[in-house]
Amino acid sequence: MRISRSVRLMLLALLVAVIPATSHAGVFISVGFAPPVLPVYVQPPCPEPGLMWTPGYWAYGPDGYYWVPGAWVPAPYAGALWTPGYWGWSASLYVWHPGYWGPHVGYYGGVNYGFGYMGIGFVGGMWHGGVFAYNTAVMRVNTTIIHTTYVDRTIVERNTIVNDRHVAYNGGPGGINHVATAQERIADHDQHLERTSFQTQHANAAMHDHSAYFSANHGHPATTVSSRPLAAENHPAPAHAGSSAHFNANAHANTQSRGQSQTHAAPQSHAAPESRATSQYHAAPQTHAAPQSHSRPAPQEHSASRPENHSGGGHDSHEHER
Known about the structure:
The protein is of the alpha+beta class. It has one domain (5-281). Helices cover 13% and strands 18% of the residues. It has helices at residues 5-18, 154-158, 182-185, 197-207, 214-217, 249-253, and strands spanning 29-31, 51-54, 57-61, 64-68, 70-74, 81-83, 86-90, 93-97, 100-102, 125-128, 131-135, 148-151, 169-170, 225-226, 278-281. The strands form 5 sheets. It has a 4-stranded mixed sheet with strand order 1-8-7-13, with no helix packed on it. The model is unreliable at 6-26 and 232-322 (pLDDT under 50).
């Protein structure tokens, strides 16, 4: 039996009142059935230096699961790394753990989102003297504009959790079985920054797109990725002028990057992993102000629900190196 939107919203309100707060989140989003599998997509090349890849994911709204496209976004400060959010199984519910920015990439459930987020840590690049260098073994960049790149396939192999079924959650029936490593726990002691205004507006744009919902696309969203955050021209400039993430809002407004989203592109082919890493830095490090200290705020837009089960979604997943 399908649950009407009004009943679903009522359940959200009721469950928010009974779910206790924790040290990491004030209120959870919890759902009674698993998120769909991760759809296949090809990462768009990074359009300018300093942008960070944030993988796509299934979020949950008033009308069920909806897809938030992967996108390149400005880092909030030099040295910031993104830990993706993930769905985890707890007390017979699927609970959303929101992502955050910090100096280390923490635990994200072992979910292999690809493009550097292979299940453990992050292998897509590193900060080097205030400049972000991209590991082109797993990242696609516009090398005519971006000259800070290197290739390291060995680290990709060491940090990859094979997920042939493209499961989007940790634990529970059929979920990924990965507990946090000692290295992943290091991030628990960091000061974290919640998602930026770019990411918030990006997610809100997806939530208001009817075609993004599983109920409409059956696991095959029309927009799987975006070169820039959706509706990015409405964002304020990055707060940290000293960051290497020089996001050019005016340039974005003059491009058609929002029209460059891709739909179920065929997986890329990659060369076999090399036995050793090679580095090719092409630009001298820039000097940037030290990152500001940030407290760890409560996550945003957290409500809870426990709707009836309905069919899962999707047939494919990311074409990432697995």
